[in-house]
Amino acid sequence: MQLVLASGSPRRNELLQLLDRPFQVVRPQVPEQQQSGEHARDYVLRLAAEKAEAGAQLSGSDAAVIGADTVVVCDNEVLEKPTDEQDFKRMMAKLSGRAHQALTGVALHHNGATDRVLVSTTVHFKILTDDDISAYWQTGEPQDKAGGYGIQGRAGKFVTHIEGSYLAVVGLPLYETEQLIQAAERSYDER
Ligand SMILES: Cc1cn([C@H]2C[C@H](O)[C@@H](COP(=O)(O)OP(=O)(O)OP(=O)(O)O)O2)c(=O)[nH]c1=O
């Protein structure tokens, strides 16, 4: 079974390499816009599936195509990538000293269908000072990350503990991704 990663995320590329399966990469552009009344869980699963399906169109083969999406949710508000420093500071003020959820949806499009899995991880932040927040923006890490932080980078020192999957917070949970791939392999074998 040929495998394609539909993602421009360097984290997802590095993580998928750890499954030791060859894969190609395509970078579909899928608009990320939550619909009114759409639950955060439905939203990340929809985006993951849209990325996988757009990736399948780009790759033009009958390969199995992986798409994923990560958002941070706090007080029912979905936090995506910060649009600017002010937006980032608002996000950090919200996340400071409490818990939030990092949701990652993973989708695998194969044989004309799209399988999906959602992984929710609770992330606890220490109380952030104004200096923490200003210094973190200057590192350049927050700009391309959901919720404005990367647990794998300098925001690691903000995280007191997590409940769930560290790799899902970073962008691609490997256990669940491997399960999706193995199920797809079985369905190709049965054809
Ligand atoms: C919360 C968190 C997110 N992130 C990243 C993972 C994703 O790359 C990004 C969330 O944005 P996404 O829209 O999920 O992904 P992306 O635009 O980077 O890549 P693509 O859609 O092409 O697959 O935030 C971290 O790297 N560390 C973290 O701790």
Descriptive keywords:
6 helices; alpha/beta; Maf protein; elongated; seven-stranded mixed sheet; binds thymidine-5'-triphosphate; ITPase-like_fam; 191 residues; nucleotide metabolism
Domain module count: 1
Q: Judging by the overall fold, what is the CATH architecture?
A: Alpha-Beta Complex
Ranges where pLDDT stays below 50 over 5 or more residues in a row are none
Measured by DSSP, the beta-strand proportion falls in: 25-35%
Describe the biggest sheet? 7 strands, mixed
C-alpha Rg (nearest Å): 17 Å
What percent of the residues sit in helical stretches (DSSP H or I)?
25-40%
| Small-molecule components bound | thymidine-5'-triphosphate
Q: SSE order in H/E notation? A: EHEHEEHEEHEHH
CATH overall fold name = Maf protein
The termini sit apart by: 12 Å
EC number: 3.6.1.9
Family: Belongs to the Maf family. YhdE subfamily.
Function: Nucleoside triphosphate pyrophosphatase that hydrolyzes dTTP and UTP. May have a dual role in cell division arrest and in preventing the incorporation of modified nucleotides into cellular nucleic acids.
Protein name: dTTP/UTP pyrophosphatase
